[in-house]
Design goal:
The chain is an all-alpha fold and about 240 residues long. The longest helix has about 35 residues.
């Protein structure tokens, strides 16, 4: 397990399955807070430790990006637990979370998808933050330079929509993975590499475009030559177009 995560199972702490929805995790946290609060069960070192574990588990599992990263490291850790590959299953063919045993190829597809989702989720989070960071530059351009404000605002709106669409696609894939883990059809599992690869590539291109925008916008304030400013504006438009595809 990565050092940034506790060495105990966060899902076990909250008494939920690893496929639990955000609402189920929130409900479990609320219930356990009432059950384990030291003011109710006694202000002892052990009770305080149990209550702290509940809070730590919730803080990680409530955050989609952190949860994806935790799930990846948790699965990799469990895969090599006790010196043999693969998760452990009981006599009924279910793992510790009550999830049915999956074919090895499905497990591999899911593990690789979840590992990529760590990077995808982090990239989409950064893109949302960076769009807010460069907004003042965007306002500066539309108020100072003779540009088509409607066109530029369309570029901005398109970029925001593109990020949201990528997030929705990621969430849809996560829903399908949860269904597979619960014993659903394996049909979508066969599409995981292609679907995840396409989303990963899109996120990569969007990240590259944003990196260029963060470098180009500040140069407009220091550029004096008209020709240079025109070239910068053309480059910025091109990067926004790439970002919003």
């Amino acid at each position: 397990m990565a050092p940034r995560f506790p060495d105990y199972d966060l899902y076990d702490v909250l008494r939920v399955k690893s496929s639990a929805s955000a609402d189920e995790i929130k409900k479990a946290h609320r219930t356990l807070c009432m059950e384990t609060h030291p003011d109710k069960v006694g202000n002892t070192a052990r009770n305080n430790e149990n209550f702290a574990k509940v809070q730590d588990a919730y803080e990680i599992l409530r955050d989609p990006a952190l949860r994806q990263e935790y799930d990846y490291h948790r699965n990799r850790n469990r895969q090599y637990h006790n010196g043999f590959p693969g998760p452990q299953y009981n006599d009924q063919g279910a793992n510790n979370n009550g999830e049915p045993k999956l074919p090895p190829w499905v497990e591999v597809f899911i593990q690789e998808t979840e590992s990529r989702f760590v990077n995808i989720s982090s990239t989409l989070f950064d893109l949302e933050r960076d769009l807010q960071t460069i907004w003042p530059y965007f306002v500066y351009v539309t108020s100072v330079y003779s540009v088509d404000e409607t066109f530029w605002r369309g570029l901005w709106a398109g970029s925001v929509s593109a990020v949201n669409a990528a997030k929705e696609r990621r969430d849809l894939i996560q829903v399908e993975i949860a269904k597979i883990k619960q014993g659903g059809s394996f049909d979508f599992a066969r599409k995981l590499p292609e679907a995840t690869g396409a989303l990963y590539t899109k996120a990569f291109h969007m990240r590259c475009a944003m990196a260029h925008l963060r470098e180009l916008f500040p140069r407009l304030r220091t550029s004096i030559d008209i020709s240079s400013r025109t070239d910068l504006l053309i480059s910025i438009e091109a990067m926004f177009t790439l970002l919003s595809r």
